Amino acid sequence: MSKTLPSVESDVTQMIERLRSGDVRALARAVSLVENDAPSATEVLSTCFPFSGRALRIGVTGAPGVGKSTIVDKLARHYRGAGVTVGVIAVDPTSPFTGGAILGDRIRMQENLGDPGFYVRSMATRGSLGGLARTTADVASVIEASGKDVILIETVGVGQDEIDIVRLSDVTIVVLVPGMGDDVQSLKAGIMEIADLFVVNKADREGADRVEKEVRAMQSLATSHGDWIPPVVKTIASTGEGIDRLTDAIAQMKQWLEADGRLEVRRRKYWRERITEMMRNALMRELREHGLSDVELDALAERVASKQEDPYRLVPELVARVVRA
Amino acid sequence: MSKTLPSVESDVTQMIERLRSGDVRALARAVSLVENDAPSATEVLSTCFPFSGRALRIGVTGAPGVGKSTIVDKLARHYRGAGVTVGVIAVDPTSPFTGGAILGDRIRMQENLGDPGFYVRSMATRGSLGGLARTTADVASVIEASGKDVILIETVGVGQDEIDIVRLSDVTIVVLVPGMGDDVQSLKAGIMEIADLFVVNKADREGADRVEKEVRAMQSLATSHGDWIPPVVKTIASTGEGIDRLTDAIAQMKQWLEADGRLEVRRRKYWRERITEMMRNALMRELREHGLSDVELDALAERVASKQEDPYRLVPELVARVVRA
Asked: So which residues are the signal peptide here (chains A, B) (predicted)?
């Protein structure tokens, strides 16, 4: 592998240079390499790294059907109108039930725009735990390296996956709608805590004021967010109403983050988690490559399932195989 | 540490003996040790291991407010009435908004029952990724070692956390209700795929037939579950209506699982994942103990956040510290 590295490196260097000079194909190729965890993915990320971290990352989450895609589209158009370059990462599930639709819309959206200051990428949820959040983070870094000013990260649903994904963001927007059946109270625990901004979308529907009141009531119960009290912004994304108030709120949040080094603190915390996770993955790869093959793992699982082997004694022995004495 | 091991071992052995002879306090203590990841937790799990794996694990998941707790309570009462011993693990969030209530109810439930064939344990979600699924699995093993025939595992919500938790089960029940606002279509991807049984609870409400039809329609689109077609059972858990049909469906599923070694296949798959995860955690512990302190990690995160250090080059170096050459 070390023999082929120089050539990969120069390929990658060229690709990233093209990506940085605005070549959309080079960007798409780099993103694909990272998304598919190709052999050169680490080289791509390492080469992009010095040029990443300059964009404002905005995460948008909320239950299915609240209008996240529409909000993201309107935000993207607003920023483009103001000359701000935008990347969008739409994280979609690959469920056979809902898989293709959003991806299709996004592809159309990109085709219609044909704008070099705008890049959109749909990503599919894979089975692997935590893997999607990692890949989203890496893809965001690559898109940032292409010089985008704002990265919008949109998730489907409000589960732990989504919480992990939006935690990558500098600003996290939680979208609610009136009359969800679902009370605000029944929102997945953890979602309230990560919100920097609440949007009550479809605010022309009955009950918008009630949703806002409920959010306020919860905030009064919640542990403090420091001196930032997440604002509640009402929108009707389909008509664009309230999008200007939302971009104002985002700008205020950005200002607050940039004051007193708060953004640095967030990003330091973010990198702490990322480094830990990268190490965890790298260690597992070592174990799989040098210690424990798939076939052996299958055989062990069978012996454990049939009570012939105690996993609590087995695992320390396996770990000892790869770890220095 | 090796010096104190004999005494811990004999303590643990005694505790597990008492636990196995029906001592509820010993059971509660053992569960606490495992839940809190105490130094003796591995010894507890190792000692319980030969006596675990005999219960039928039933996972119950669904959106907040669909009546999961009521269903679990009715199932528990039904089984107790039939002389079947029952353990319940209720996995609750520690959110400041919804934290304490369910736990409180559960404690009352246990006090009221005062039945040695019944044990209930509430568990709180922690921040750590995947950690709760692991702890739930371990706690289930300990409760199984006390000789319970059925373990009911109930989650709050339907996110990735919950999917990970109910994947530990032999039988997974997904609870729906009519008029959720939420369509069945908008259910978190992944939930449909893990369901072995659907319950349409509050079936006296308008729209119960529609929910059933929607589930059926989705099933016709879904990838096959083998030759098991997840049945849809209508219940009104608050009055107990339909609980007998539900226990019948569970019994049928159990029969199906036990035929042709399907249960063994599921459990082998389960242990494959568990062993992998246990190794991942053990490797991280090694790294933290021998390679990288918290203080050092903080310093690295700061250098990475300020672009002084490339994490993609750093991590392989860190991993090399603990891994054999």
From this structure: none
pLDDT in tens, B264-278: 998 998 899 888 888
- Beta-carbon contacts of residue B91 (< 8 Å; ≥ 6 apart): B122, B123, B125, B132, B136, B153, B154, B155, B156, B162, B165
A124 lies in the same domain as A192: yes
pLDDT digits (tens, 9 = 90+) for B76-102: 999 999 999 999 998 865 443 343 445
Instruction: Give the whole-angstrom CA distance, residue A192 versus residue B119.
Output: 32
Q: What is the ipTM of this complex?
A: 0.80
Identify the closest residue of chain B to A156 by CA–CA distance.
Answer: B188
How many angstroms away from the CA of A205 is the closest CA of chain B? 14
Q: Which of B50, B267, B311 sits opposite A274 (nearest CB)?
A: B311
Report CB contact under 8 Å: A180, B185.
no
Q: Are residues A39 and A71 in the same domain?
A: no
Dihedrals phi, psi of B311, to nearest 5 degrees: -65, -25
- Work out how many domains chain B is built from and give that number: 3
Residue B312 has pLDDT above 80, yes or no: yes
**Residue type at A189?**
A
CB A311 to CB B287 under 8 A? Answer: no
User: Is the pLDDT at A83 greater than 60, yes or no?
Assistant: yes
What's chain A's average pLDDT? 82
Residue B29 is part of which domain span? 1-50
Looking at the structure, do residues B35 and B11 belong to the same domain, yes or no? Answer: yes
